[in-house]
């Protein structure tokens, strides 16, 4: 009897939001690694709150039947198609994914068409058709229609208040992330960089391999005195040098990476004129190559594409994905693109030790146990979190050793520089991860390796490095160290910031 008394307008709203939940928003939750009933309960509540906010927006569309037929239909089809890839491949919606989708050639799109996609597309249309048929059977009373507007507006207010308190609490889930990243794609502005107008001359022509790490702190490196064997391979080498006193105030990637790759100092304001490291190298006739395992962010995307060659090995999965490719894929691409007997500058951008740690290394590197079993931080012990993090450092040790082994075989004048973009907080003051104002995230790891030919040709530079190992340096050093290595002429930089120049 109670069900019979429920107005068909309410049934319609419930049906619409059920369809939205299944075909649009649910995919953002199916790939979450969770381990307990409590965690499932927490994310169930989060999912329901997200659905309430979605109800607020969809209800506004129902206020006009023509707006609903056109507007809702378009939004539902687009969002559902995007969710197909989130369902099946755990793809992360990013600006670069939007860019690839909008700017790729049609034949690339048709290569992605499959039987499951066609069937899913047909199912979407059947569901949409049932929604529109249901709409025609609902008697819309003009006055009663606006009574639900109050709850709708409260639901929308919930969305904005939640985002104001913590950015991304809903925006990182479907369908909000799709529209947010599409908006960001069309609003993106290029970074303001000075142009290097004239060709430059450099005295030294060598191979420089720069490995840009992620969330690796110096304190957990065995090379720096950490009691655990996190660097079992590198610690056996006599030709590896560790910089343990690097400082950066920039504790998240979007801010740290553009500072590292340009002339911008950690003390500069954002509006000061800067030069890109790649623009200088290009003008000095260096072959610049970027190989990345991170989806480029807006703040440094233009820097990446200044390289003469760019390879992104897993662009559809960002650092937020739990199915990201391992960093060793970078080595395979690097070997394929390595060019002998010329001046090269390679950049390998790692996913590194970014949370979720368990997706950053393969099973054979699970040296420290027990490890985390869930994405929900409060459910893991401090021991589990540190064990998982340290396993990512063991994996980094293997990665760098493999790179060095390959470069040793080439017998060229080569130097490898590893620098993490920032550190990581591991329980200090009851804080975790990064992006927070804490000393633990301001001390990134740095490692240098040089070939025998480099030692022979540049003994003074190597001596300068050894003298600077225990000194405090900022991440400013990378830009100025590279230019001092190649000894670029007729271009201003600060030699005193180079780690290869001995300071009295």
Compact summary:
It is elongated, with a radius of gyration of 26 Å.
pLDDT under 50 segments (min length 5)? 1-5
- Given helix and strand content, the structural type is alpha/beta
* Physical arrangement of strands within the biggest beta sheet: 3-11-8-2-7-5-6
Q: Whole-number radius of gyration?
A: 26 Å
The main β sheet shows up as: 7 strands, mixed
Number of helices: 19
Mean pLDDT: 87
* Beta-strand content estimate: 5-15%
Helix content: 40-55%
Termini gap: 90 Å
Number of strands: 13
Gross morphology is elongated
Description of the structure:
The chain is of the alpha/beta class. The protein has 19 helices and 13 strands. The protein has a 7-stranded mixed beta sheet with strand order 3-11-8-2-7-5-6, sandwiched between helices. Mean pLDDT is 87; it is low at 1-5.
Based on the model shown, name its key terms.
two-stranded antiparallel ribbon, single chain, 13 strands, 504 residues, seven-stranded mixed beta sheet, alpha/beta
Describe the SSE topology.
Blueprint: H1 2-5, H2 8-25, H3 27-30, H4 37-62, H5 65-89, H6 95-103, H7 106-111, H8 115-136, H9 142-145, H10 149-165, H11 176-187, E1 201-202, E2 207-213, E3 240-243, E4 246-247, H12 253-260, H13 277-283, E5 287-292, H14 301-304, E6 309-312, H15 328-337, E7 344-349, H16 382-410, E8 414-420, E9 425-426, E10 432-433, E11 446-450, H17 452-457, H18 459-468, E12 473-474, H19 477-486, E13 488-489
Parallel strand pairs: 2-7, 2-8, 4-12, 5-6, 5-7
Antiparallel strand pairs: 1-13, 3-11, 8-11, 9-10
Helix pairs in contact: 2-4, 2-5, 2-8, 4-10, 5-8, 6-11
